[in-house]
Request: fold
Amino acid sequence: MTPKPGYAAGNILNMLVHLGADLTGYDFSGLSVWQAYVQGVALRGATFAHTDMRDVVFTKVFDIVLTVAFSPDGNILAAGTGNHDITLWRILDGAFQEMGVCEGHRGWVRAVAFSPDGRLLGSSSDDQRICLWHVSTGRCTKELIGHTRRVSSVMFHPAGHLLVSGSDDYTIRLWDIETGICHHVIHEHTGRVSSVVFSPRGDLIASASQDQTVCLWDIRGDTPQLLHRLRGHTAMVRSVAFQHTSALLASAGEDNTIRLWSLVTGESMATLAGHTNRVRTSPATKQKPAI
Reply:
């Protein structure tokens, strides 16, 4: 239903703000909200779906949000956006308090990930760089340079000393967090690498690609070894996630399916169909820290 034009809803909203009303959970969907001023107003759970907004002032104006991540303790949320920045919020009693903005990328921020201790945030971007940020200050401590196209995925090792990245340049890179040196460049996929993850124990890496395959790597030796190339998807594989016991791997693809794989045999254990469009993210169960 198209909202009827007018200032009534906006005026009511301004009056509620003036009176100090608690707007938690208010439903403004389907209304014309014109010339409302809600800067600094808590709108937890408020809905503005299908709302006609004109000259509305919120606390912060966002570009497209491409990636989000919670800190390990669940108290901080990071969001990477199309305006090249990362915004950090502290979560206090269900409310979000902005901590600051990490500025430095020169392209869309495609992925963000916290270190296991929550002190560092890793981010990757269309600018081909990976940045490491101090969460407490929002300052960039290192830039990891080496990829030649956008970097779509980053993840910290469970022990916190390594970071893995996947890029549109078809490669996977393993980085030393302390030195910023790239220890390994893995050339195996024949398409863009869309997702890379460590197993909960940190001994394996799984990667998903535009080439319709998932690769499983053993990184316990001096050089990463390809254990399995998992075939079955019929379109680009968007994401992968380990089960916390490391017995299964889930993958999600643009063929509208989620697949479950055995890490021992590399065989497909199940295909979960039902989606009518591409699946971009596969679920991950809670990961246990490395021992």
Observations:
- Residues 285-291 have pLDDT under 50 and may be disordered.
- The helical segments are 8-18.
